[in-house]
Structure formats: C-alpha cells, structure tokens
Amino acid sequence: MIFAKYKDQVEELLSRYPVKRSALLPLLYIAQKEEGYVSESAMKEIGKILGLTPPQVYETVTFYTMFHLKPIGKFHLQVCRSLMCALVGSDDLVGWIHRRLGISPGQTTNDKMFTLSAVECLGSCGTGPMMQVNDDYFEQLNEEKVGRILDDLKTHGTCPLKSGPFMFPEPVR
Amino acid sequence: MKILLKNMEQPGYTGSLKEYEQTGGYQALRRVVGGMEPNDLIDMVKASGLRGRGGAGFPTGVKWGFIPKDHPGPRYLCCNADESEPGTFKDRQLMERDPHQVLEGIGISCYAIGAQIAYIYIRGEFRLGFQILEKAIQEARQAGYVGKNVLGSGVTIDIYVHAGAGAYICGEETALLESLEGKRGKPRTKPPFPATHGLYQKPTVVNNVETLANLPHIVNRGAEWFSSIGSPPKSTGTRIFCLSGHIKKPGNYEVPMGTTFRELIDEHGGGMRSEKPLKAFIPGGASAPFLTPDHLDVKMDFEDVAKAGSMLGSGGVTVMEEGTSMVWAALRLMEFFNHESCGKCTPCREGSSWIVQILQRIRAGRGRMQDLETLSTICGNIGGRTVCAFGDAEIAPVLSTLQHWRHEYEALIREAEAAHPPKSEIPVLSL
Ligand SMILES: Cc1cc2nc3c(=O)[nH]c(=O)nc-3n(C[C@H](O)[C@H](O)[C@H](O)COP(=O)(O)O)c2cc1C
User: Fold this and answer.
1) Among A59, A60, A88, A120, the residue to mutate for chain B (most B Cβ within 10 A)
2) CB B250 to CB A124 under 8 A?
3) Does the structure show a pLDDT above 80 at B430?
4) pLDDT single digits (tens) A85-138
5) Which of A16, A65, A163 is the closest to B166 by Cβ?
6) What domains does chain A contain, in order, with CATH numbers?
7) Which of A74, B8, B229, B395 could form a disulfide with B97 if both were Cys (CB 3.0 to 4.6 A apart)?
8) pLDDT band of B419, cuts 50, 70, 90
9) What is the pLDDT of residue B421?
10) Who among B10, B163, B249 is closest to A169 (CB)?
C-alpha cells in the first residue's frame, strides 16, 4: 500500500476538487515518485481511493507520456528533438550522450542509471539544445557541459548546472 | 515599452510577495474587490482591447461576457499554463520570475466572472514553475489575497496549481478541461462552449498566463492607456515574443504589438547568428504557416500577420538561415504533430502519420512527383474536418513550405527519380 503514509496529502488533494476523479493525475505523480513507475497495484489502489475502475485509471495513465508503466533508469534524460532545438543541435546532443553512455533513445544503461528518450518540445526553445533530467532542466548544452552533467549525476546524484527560475536573456546589470 | 517584464528586469528582483507589493502589486486586486462592479470590470477589459495571448487572439472581455450572469452554481477560471506550442517559452518566465503578477491577474479575472476557484493547469514538465507557483499562492493566502474573504471583502478566490503530464493537446481549452477532470485529454465537440458548459459542465473561462498577467496593469492604469499602446484598435498592448532558431540572441522580448519582424529579429535578436542570411521564419509557433524574407516588414499584429498568410499565434518566432532544408523542417514539425495527435478524429490521427511517411520517403530519396499531389490532398482532408484546431495547425508547415519552397521538394524527388527511374506509376495512396 503506497498511499497509507500519504493520507494527509491525499486528503488535501481531494479537497481541491468538487469531483474526486480530478485528483487522478496528482495521485499518479505520488505513485510514480514512490516506486519510480506506475505499478499495477498502485493503479488499483488509486482506483479504490477515487472510486474508479482499474480500466478507467489505466485508460488515463496511458494517454500521458510522463507516466511510465515499467521501471526506467534512475536518471531519465529527455532530449528535446522538436524543430526549434533541432535547428541548434539537438541531434548532436543525442550523439554526445550516446558517445558517453552507449545508449540511444529508448535505451537504458546496463547499470540502470540512465534512460535516454528523445521527446517533443519542452518549452525551452530559446535555450536549446536542452534536456530534462527527472525534474530538472539543463539548457544551452554543449559537449563539455553534458560530460560534466553525466559525471555529476553519477557521483553526486545532482548537478549545479540545472536551470533556476527562467529568464532569458538575463537582465543586464 | 515594458509592462509584463518590467519588474523582473530590475536587478535582484526575485518575484517574492514583498518585492511585488513594493512595485505596486495587488493594488489592482484591492481596488476591484473593494467595490468595483464586475460588469464595469468586464467593460473596462473590453475597452482595453486586450486579446488572448494563448493563440487564438479572442477578445478577453468579450469571452468573460459570455459567462451567464444568472447561473446559480459554481463557475471556474482555468489559467492555461500548458505552454507546449513549439517555439513558445514566455509563460514559463512569467510564472517563474514574477508569479504574483499572474496570481493577481487570476484574482481579477475570477472577480469579473464570479468564479470562486481557479485552477492553473501547468504542463507537467515545468516542475520548477509548479513549485514556485505553489509557494507564491501560500504567500498570497497568508497575506489575504487568496482564500476565503479576500482582503476583507467577503469574496472567495481559491487558486490551485494542477500539473499536466506530457500531452501537447491539453493546451487546447476543452482538452485541458477533460484532463483537469482526470480523463484522457481529448478535445470536446463545440458547442456547447466552455462559457456555459466547461469544467464539470459549469460556466468556465480559460485564459492564457500572459493574458491574465496584463490585467493588473489595465486596472491600475486604465483601458485608455492600454488601448493606446501597440497597434490599435485591433491589436493593443505589448506582447512577449519568443525568439528561437538561427538567431544571435534568442530569448523573450516584450515589444508593442505592431512592431515589425525585422525590428524584432535585427534589433532585439541581434540578427542572424552567422553570415548566412535569413531563409524562412515561423511567426507564431509551430501551428503558424512559414513566412519568407519578403514578409520581414510585416507588422506583428493579429490582422497584418493574417493578411500575410500566417498567424500571430502564440508569439513564438523561429528563424531559419539559408541552407536549412525546408522539407526537413516540415518533417520535424510534422513528427511533432503526429506524436501529439490525440487520436480522436480520423483525419488528423491517420493523416498526420501518412504525411510523416511521405515526407520521410521524399527525404530518403524515394519520393515520386505524385507525392506532392497526395500531400495536398491529405492536408485538404484534414483542414476544417477535426473537432479542434489541431487539424488546421498541423497542415500549416507542409502547405506553407510547399507553397514557398516547392522547388526543394521537386529537386529531391527529381534526384530520386533519376537514381531509381519509375518503371511504372507507383500507387501511392488512393484517396
Ligand atoms: C492544439 C492547441 C494547443 C493549444 N495550446 C495552448 C497552450 O499551450 N497555451 C495556451 O495558452 N493556449 C493554447 N491553445 C489555445 C487555447 O485553446 C485557448 O484558446 C486559450 O488558452 C485561451 O486563452 P486566451 O483567450 O487568453 O488566449 C491551444 C489551442 C490548440 C488548438
């Protein structure tokens, strides 16, 4: 049971909406955070909380690309491949990652550390090429930066090059 | 002329409640809940000429006016923070750098339409923006700007942030509502419109982040002030244009509407990134037809861009230099649309994958001249035949590149035909 320890949070979430089903996506996020993916048992549990059948939960989960139904690597590298990033080198970015980790989009490293995906627009078109790693954005990437990010993630689990509150161009001081 | 980005361009400004208040923040909300008639507020926004910044450019005050006055039940405001139109990255900046400006706008809009609850539907990938907004709402709640009895007025305005989970279509307003209800994000057939049957079938307004951020300024400085900026009477105020692609200084630039593309690109963007001249640009996000260097002096207002054969859309301006393959560019965008088609309407679901297959074939040197005819036919069978505007959007890159750069398609195909002479007509697709 995932949600036993999130009782208060679940209650608070349910109080935000007049209809329980609206809390479906928020609960799926909790489940995914807890287990790394959305498991069948989590979907059943969510169904019980919201009064939905398992198919109702499943049909919704499968619409959204951010939910995974199978475990993935510890760090999910998502490279934006849409036109705006492609104009400034997102294909190169995929190549740099491949050179370092030996994986192509859709693959996970043997040690289960990294999964690489090529995804569509992440809303960071002026600061490409870029990638999202779990919750963080990494922008204006070049080969050297990518090397440092991957090293940092491996050794420290995080990297200071991640983006803060976004403003571009930065105001002139 | 900076309105929306003015605060955040101050050195050291972090967007906290205190800083926002010091710039005069929340005075507008105080004024409206303090006794302004909702109808007068709606009239004021109508008079300002403010039009939606989400893509369609619908007059905001008019949209609010569609909410039935006599409806007994709850009404809702949804702030569209899905920002997923390729080329667009302004709402992210507005939310992450000056969240209270957005919240104040939401409060004003709620008051105008009589909504007690607003949901900010933010794309799931904007985790940082989500956290910043939650924190800002907390601050605003403590200060009495959000919650029951706002500023002692008896008015209730609750604001919640709701994260999407990776689906471009959820930016379309009725798909957004479906998603907020915990379902697959498939657009609804209209009518009925959200104004009468929106979230939970209740009267609902959906407004874009940038649209809402303008409201405090309109209330503070008046409709006349706002409507004198830009390109009145039809395109008033400023707009944040997002510059991307082969440009020297990409980024967000707020300029009065009616500025020319040339000025945006040359003066704000610093021109092209290299010696190579501009070959093509997209004026308003991936859904807007490509334009050519001949269109650089077009003014960036709703009417003039439409007259030039494209649309101002979401404000995402992407420039491409000489040497960029237009067939490749169209294919990249088409792959996006094919991936994001929600699958509800057959012409869009099937058509988008056919177009991708044909473009891939042409790029791979296996094209045939009749493919171009087929492309036009498929596009003709998508446009205007889908439940939402996604269908019209996805054919824009193909049709506009075919219109302006047909010779590039033909050259690739001629090469293919020379290398592999067609023994007979290949039946491509019979439609
Ligand atoms: C396929 C599609 C995607 C859209 N994506 C967005 C989006 O990401 N953000 C947005 O504000 N509007 C988007 N829109 C426009 C909305 O449907 C709606 O018109 C807008 O949010 C209304 O707000 P406004 O009147 O303030 O512009 C999209 C429309 C379509 C057809």
Assistant:
1) A120
2) no
3) no
4) 999 999 999 999 999 999 999 999 999 999 999 999 999 999 999 999 999 999
5) A65
6) 2-63 (1.10.10.1590), 75-156 (3.40.30.10)
7) B8
8) confident
9) 79
10) B249
Q: Rounded to an integer, what distance in angstroms lies between the CA atom of residue B172 and that of residue B189?
A: 12
Q: How far apart are CA A123 and CA B82, in angstroms?
A: 9
Cβ <8 Å between A26 and B93? no
Q: What is the pLDDT of residue B333?
A: 98
- In this prediction, residue B269 has a pLDDT band, given cuts at 50, 70 and 90, of very high
B383 interface with A at CB cutoff 8 Å: no
- Beta carbons of B263 and B271 less than 8 angstroms apart: no
- Helix residue spans in A16-112 (DSSP H): 24-35, 40-50, 54-61, 83-87, 90-101
Which residues in chain A touch residue B245, judged by CB atoms under 8 angstroms apart? 84, 87-88
What span, in angstroms and rounded, lies between the C-alpha atoms of B337 and B328?
14
For A22-33, how does the pLDDT look when each residue is reduced to its tens digit (9 = 90+)? 999 999 999 999
Report which protein residue has its CA nearest ligand 1's atom 13.
B171
Q: Do B182 and A126 touch (CB under 8 A)?
A: no
The whole-model pTM stands at 0.97
B341 in contact with ligand 1, CB cutoff 6 A: no
Say how many Å lie between the CA of residue B173 and the centre of ligand 1.
6
Give percent above pLDDT 90 in chain B: 95
Q: Is residue A1 predicted with pLDDT exceeding 90?
A: no
